[in-house]
Design brief:
Helix 1 packs across helix 5 and helix 3 runs antiparallel to helix 4. The chain starts with a helix and ends with a helix. With 121 residues, it is mainly alpha-helical. Helices cover 75% and strands 0% of the residues. The protein has one domain.
């Protein structure tokens, strides 16, 4: 189960470092082609979501790696589940139900990470 966690957690962390880093560092104009929803959400909220994604990525990797508070990996994965629930709600409310495939995949992967992270608790 530990190997499975590191595969799932590592891939999720890579994705969220990329996506969260873009949300934190790039302008609204640069994000718009990839994330059309940034037009309807205030940029401070977009930056907050990006920071939460970065913290979630760190929480997936650092606690199990260091052995310090490894239960935080469960909280990090659960937080990423909640971020994807918010993403699904945002897309559906904008009439973009066809675009939730990635969100559902990330939600499932984060849910699996929650389950696999119980190895350390």
């Amino acid at each position: 189960m530990e190997i499975a966690y590191w595969i799932v957690g590592g891939l999720l962390a890579l994705f969220y470092v990329y996506a969260g880093g873009k949300k934190v560092a790039q302008s609204q104009e640069a994000l718009r082609p990839m994330m059309g929803w940034v037009d309807t959400v205030p940029m401070p909220l977009v930056r907050t979501i990006g920071a939460l994604e970065l913290l979630g990525a760190a929480g997936l990797i650092l606690p199990p790696l260091t052995g310090i508070a490894p239960g935080l990996a469960i909280a990090a994965a659960a937080g990423l589940v909640l971020i994807q629930v918010g993403g699904i709600v945002t897309h559906v409310s904008r009439g973009e139900a066809r675009m939730i495939g990635l969100n559902i995949g990330l939600l499932v992967a984060a849910g699996v990470a929650v389950w696999l992270a119980t190895v350390w608790v």
